[in-house]
Design goal:
Blueprint (H helix, E strand, L loop, with lengths): L2 H30 L3 H29 L2
Length: 66
């Protein structure tokens, strides 16, 4: 894999982790405010983004080994 591709994938992975963290934090705040629908929505979106980040991380590791 070219270094440029690795750098882009790594940066996107980091950004996805940050977005997921922000969504998890927002979900916690919504839950504390008894906004259960919002908390559920935010948690669900955070889970999906976190999962995508983990998939990207696995891809990066796999490509590094080639």
């Amino acid at each position: 894999m070219k270094q440029e591709t690795f750098t882009i994938l790594s940066n996107v992975y980091t950004q996805l982790q940050q977005i997921a963290a922000q969504l998890y934090t927002a979900a916690e705040v919504a839950l504390q405010n008894d906004d259960f629908d919002d908390a559920s929505l935010l948690q669900s979106r955070a889970d999906k983004i976190y999962e995508e980040a983990e998939n990207l991380d696995a891809l990066i590791i796999e490509l590094e080994g080639e």
